[in-house]
Amino acid sequence: MQTNNHKISDYDAVLDERFGKEGTAQRIQAEEDALSFYSGQILLDARKEAKMTQAELAAKIHSTKSYISKLENGVIVPSVGAFYRIISALGLRVEVVKPIF
Fold first, then answer.
1. Tens digits of per-residue pLDDT, 35-74?
2. Concatenated DSSP letters of the chain
């Protein structure tokens, strides 16, 4: 791993060293964990922007405050159905579009 004054110059080397080579089970799990955390942060930000508590969101989707907390902390990933219920309860929508290149 090469760094200069704590500045990373080779991200692939850092990831390989920390989580294993790309395509390995350990690296795939690390990437899944990172996506879960990132998704949770998106939901957390959206809930706060909607000025809603975890308990209020949970009530809207017929769930528990604990479930919302686990989602926001990236501990668990919602099912597709739960994800759409959450998005709807937050007054958001999901849009699938083809990228323009």
1. 899 999 999 999 999 999 999 999 999 999 999 999 999 9
2. --EETTEES-HHHHHHHHH-STTSHHHHHHHHHHHHHHHHHHHHHHHHHTT--HHHHHHHTT--HHHHHHHHTTSS---HHHHHHHHHHTT------PPP-
